[in-house]
Protein 1
Amino acid sequence: MTIVPQPCARCGELIPAERIEAVPETMVCVQCSQEIGGEFKVFVTPERTSKDGSLKKNYGGYSTRKVRKPLKPKGQA
């Protein structure tokens, strides 16, 4: 599988193929990602498997949700 580098949505530089392979949904390069504090906000919610009112602890898992931060071109505030 060939991965083609794509331009960064923020600065226009090419995103390395290694980054696209590691994070396929990325739209920014490593430098811009570090400058804006990451490309995504990640929300983690514990899942409860016990019945309401039950004192027994049934441990469930966690569900995660990623939300992309708004991206502005590098020259804009």
Protein 2
Amino acid sequence: MHDFIAHPEHGIVWISGASSGIGRALALQLAAEGYRVAVTARDHEKLAELQAQANGLAGSIVVLDGDVTDPEDMEHVLASIEYEHGTLALAIFNAGVYLPVHAEELKRDDFEQSFAVNVQGVVNCLIPAVRHMKAKGQGQIAIVSSVTGYGGLPTSAAYGATKAALINMAESLKFDLDKMGIRIQVVTPGFVDTPATRKNEFPMPSLISAEEAAAEISAGLKSKRFEITFPKRFTYTLKLLKLVPYGLYFRLINRSTGWRDRPLAGGRRSVTPHPAE
């Protein structure tokens, strides 16, 4: 039963963080494939625009406003899905924030906000979703992490830590969810062209569009793979880097990003690009 793959006839898809970037593109991708997709975010206007954009597609989009940092909001979203829209077949927890961190200018709020949205926000969605799927005896969950969760990178002390936590969370939950008929996957994208990454001033290796990322995720959701990662040449290179000794790892990251040559102190801009939702 842990090989369950959600198809349109099985019920509704829920995507958090769907107002922009990967979440938005994925909602349209799945709606085009005939799925009914419930989208959640704090920006109602963007969600309404997304819903209108799906007009004429094989499937449809349902707007369910909510803030992932508010557990009651997420309980209400799941209740609305369950009692107004039908069975939750697939949940994709994508909401996240990227706040660059510089060691010479540490700010408590950067860490608190990152963990509140990227980690606790997933937990707030996960608890009602698993409860619903457990009662139905089947379901599928995908947690969107990032390759920054593989190892430390400049400015990612908060963002990367949250994404590493999500990878570990998905790995750990898989043991029990398998026995409950619920399939869990983790999504680890490389660099994706989103509003967050467009702020970067330096070239990003293997950059792909949000639409390309959505197509990759959609295909991965229909596979039996635990990890959905792309583009593979780039993401597997980062995986391999974690196998080298730390001394070499830090030298290679410094060389590839040019970080060692960047000055400390105020006024420095964030120049190292990062994958983001």
Protein 3
Amino acid sequence: MEGTEGSGAGAATASYGRAVVYREKLPRRWTVVTVAVLAVWVAYQGSVLLPEDSTVWFVILGFSAFFALVFNAVPFSKRIYHRIRLSDGQLTVGRETIAVDSLAVESVREAREQPTDAEFASSLASRSREELAELRRASSATASPRLLGGGWSVPMGMDQIVVETVRGESLLIATHDREALLDALTRARRS
């Protein structure tokens, strides 16, 4: 993953939060492997079936393209809805852009204290039925945060952080590199 970078000479004269640049690259390993395996499969079938059984080969080609789309739907949706960029004082998550100065400084600090998904799951596993029932009641009384960038939920394999705007709106951000994103937001939102 590419980390956070300052913009050198312009950092001292840049306006509030504009010197911080962060771009989160999403992993491509799964997409490359599935497309490569399917391409090898189609090439092998082509060497066996062509030119006599070209109709069967075209059917195999069509099914392979369908499977490539099915196997890579989540990575494609991550690229559309959850790609994170921070530059020029703007935080862009997927198709949505907000100003970094609209985030509350305290909520960015508190986001560091939030448990990761694995820590949260292990803490839930150690609770009694009564404690879980009380947590359900408390969580149903509060509004869930809005997922920044769109989509239905945080995709598998991504971590999440919750930050608040200065207006009090809770935002959920799905990320692959929680610490690097929080470092970039903290540096961009210093007051």
Protein 4
Amino acid sequence: MSIVAPCYNEAECLREFHRRAAAAARASCGESFEIVLVDDGSRDATWSIIEALAEADPHVVGVRLMRNHGHQLAASAGLSLARGDRVMLIDADLQDPPELLAPMMARMDAGADVVFGQRGVRHAETWFKKASASAFYRLLSNLAAVPIPRDTGDFRLMRRRVVDALVSMPERQRFIRGLVSWIGGRQEALVYERQARHAGTSKYPLRKMIRFAVDAITGFSIGPLRVATYLGLFAAGLALLLLAYTLWQWAAGDTVAGWSSVMTAIVLFGAVQLIVLGIQGEYVGRLFQEAKARPLFLIDRVVTAGNERALPAEFCSLAPTAQREVWEATRAATTLRA
């Protein structure tokens, strides 16, 4: 059993998260578990706390990225190192309770491939956050080519085959909950109450939320391109009507020297063109990023049982199965030397 938690400036939450996650894992799996904590370029004491936890608890695997890659890539880095037959992905801020591991395991014992947390009550969130999240999920569910459950985050328990398929996907602008939905299999929802943060502040301000929403929509739907087409057709229809009106006015001899109508038409059609170009540019930009084929993330160091493990430079470019084999060999070799 693996528990993967991306961490960015979570020094105030980490020790309590470790205590609760370890207790939940022991209750469900005995001692056969690991907790993978991924430091996503934190600026506070997150990494030093992870090192201390790894030294005190052999179940902890500390992963430090070379820089801040963002939540989705940090989660992907942790999943690439997770060795469990079942893997729980969860944030370290304790808004999603680790104690739900037990009911998730029960659902998986009954045959589920993925058990995802679906947010019922959301505590300590502003009305704007709730309203914008609700609107986003409903828009996405209507646009996406695959059904993506509403009101869900990345909090979920996955089987090994789902994790391997997820890690093997090369997309840079990752939307993990959408990728898991695309993989398919038997996926079940577990409704729960989302708690307030244990400490600290949210790492998703409005700017990041908008960027995340754009990645989700453009990654799983070509709907915006169709909207651009519809806007173009609508603008063309207006242009024809304006042309007909202009000809009719000319035939009636009612021509007025002025610029208001001309400027209105220019602004209208210019705005439509810029919207269409912007939507197309978003997709072209994604193609440009993917074409460069850079590694999704770069790992600076890995610490387990208080000892630092060195991974080969090409680790991030390996297939998921090869990554896991290299990681297991690295851990075994270091342990034997010790």
